[in-house]
Design brief:
single chain, 8-stranded mixed β-barrel, alpha+beta, 11 helices, globular, 4-stranded antiparallel beta sheet, about 20% strand, 17 strands
């Protein structure tokens, strides 16, 4: 004879299964009655309707298992470049959807709460959050408009965060609220602006190339239409912007010296030397005139800009600002791709910290592809050995690989998922169109 506890659990499970069946049979129509809406703004590119059984797991009575939006996003074909010959068409489809959203009144504003909203909480703002996520297609309208932050809302929030380059933790904190509250009309104009950029960029993306998307702080190494590797990047601060350019990678420096750019001498090095005269010695930075003669820090008047007349070089090794590698391409901005000793920055949601250069996560993988694609006898083992030796080594590539540093803040994929990034350098020109401004939501 089954115990009373087991019988109770079975009754609850049967009730939940029946409720799920009713919900699925009613579909969007019941949700429209709850919301007062007569039709969905557009068919969402993903849905959060239960697709798996309710189970007893880890001592709890049940849990819902379903294909949520983060799963859909993570299952995208990772070999397809973000920007390709079809991206413009995908953006045009997204523009049509967002035009419909704007015509129907956009989406509601989500008010910030004293404590960030997260799964398990009940709050009046959750109902508004549900409406907001339904309009953009992150949450199925079948989920209803209750004030409970359940697993469906959690999955929808994570999907929204992934689409906007935010940390997908399911927590509706300040950065997520800012992104949620960018008006639909602004997002529409952002798509229209980026359609122009993609139309200009896409024809350049042929054969082998490296694409840096500055607002997305990402890098793709592409070979004949297939992504060979993707890398998180750290790009320029708002006041020291990474430039938009087209060039070609021609050389890699292992265990490099770092020659301090004049802009950093003026903005960083001089102020730090004024506060701490031992700064150069502590960071193994030496001073040379342009004839190669070494100077001492006492030879310079640090209360003026005299230091900008000299060359400052940081020795290779631990703490070198270039890390273990520098990737060179011709440009007039004194910028390059490079490794960094500050690996923790790659885990940050906000990755706009550099002085214009681009720091590359897992730079060895990128270097291996660059060299093995163009220069005989180079593989990952040889790259690792060159770094491990600690010796200075300059490798000139037998053939150059094009590099494109672009500014793309909105795009769409083949599955209809629309992505946005913060207009970190205010190049979209849409700040005035938003009450909060189309600023980087991570600021």
């Amino acid at each position: 004879m089954l115990s009373q506890v087991v019988q109770t659990r079975r009754r609850r499970l049967l009730s939940l299964l029946c409720s799920a069946a009713v919900l699925m049979s009613l579909g969007a129509a019941s949700a429209q009655v709850q919301s007062g809406s007569q039709e969905e703004p557009f068919s969402p590119p993903y849905t959060n309707v239960p697709s798996g059984p309710l189970q007893f797991v880890d001592g709890t009575e049940w849990q819902d298992s379903f294909d949520g939006a983060p799963g859909k996003l993570s299952k995208m074909d990772l070999q397809i470049p973000t920007i390709n010959e079809s991206t413009a068409d995908y953006i045009k489809g997204a523009i049509a959807k967002y035009q419909q959203i704007v015509v129907q009144g956009g989406w509601p504003q989500v008010q910030a709460t004293a404590k960030p909203l997260r799964m398990g909480m009940r709050h009046d703002n959750v109902s508004v959050l549900r409406q907001r996520l339904m309009v953009s297609g992150d949450l199925s309208q079948a989920a209803g408009l209750s004030n409970t932050f359940d697993s469906y809302v959690d999955a929808a929030v994570r999907a929204f965060q992934l689409r906007h380059g935010l940390t997908p933790d399911g927590v509706v904190g300040e950065s997520t609220v800012k992104a949620l509250n960018v008006p639909a009309a602004v997002r529409l104009r952002q798509l229209q602006k980026n359609l122009e950029r993609v139309d200009e960029l896409a024809p350049k993306l042929e054969g082998q190339y490296v694409l840096v998307n500055i607002p997305g702080a990402t890098i793709e190494a592409v070979d004949q239409g297939h992504v060979r590797s993707r890398h998180t990047a750290v790009v320029g601060k708002i006041d020291r912007q990474t430039p938009i350019l087209d060039s070609a990678i021609h050389e890699l420096n292992f265990n490099p010296y770092w020659t301090v750019p004049v802009s950093i001498i003026r903005k960083d090095l001089i102020p730090r030397m004024q506060k701490n005269p031992n700064y150069l010695a502590e960071n193994r930075i030496r001073i040379f005139d342009w004839h190669g003669n070494e100077l001492q820090w006492q030879d310079i008047d640090w209360q003026t800009d005299e230091a900008t007349q000299y060359r400052f070089t940081q020795d290779p090794g631990d703490g070198n600002s270039m890390g273990t590698m520098r990737i060179n391409f011709h440009n007039t901005h004194q910028v390059y791709l490079h490794d960094t000793p500050e690996q923790s920055l790659f885990g940050s949601g906000y990755r706009f910290h550099s002085s214009g250069c681009v720091r590359v996560q897992n730079v060895r993988e990128l270097a291996t592809w660059l060299l093995s694609s163009t220069t005989p006898d180079w593989d990952r083992a040889r790259v690792d050995q060159a770094i491990r030796s600690g010796e200075r080594l300059d490798v000139r590539m037998k053939s150059k690989i094009p590099l494109h540093m672009a500014y793309i803040t909105a795009w769409a994929n083949s599955d209809g998922v629309v992505h946005f990034r913060g207009d970190i350098y205010n190049r979209d020109g849409l700040t005035a169109a938003s009450a909060g401004g189309l600023e980087n939501p991570l600021n």
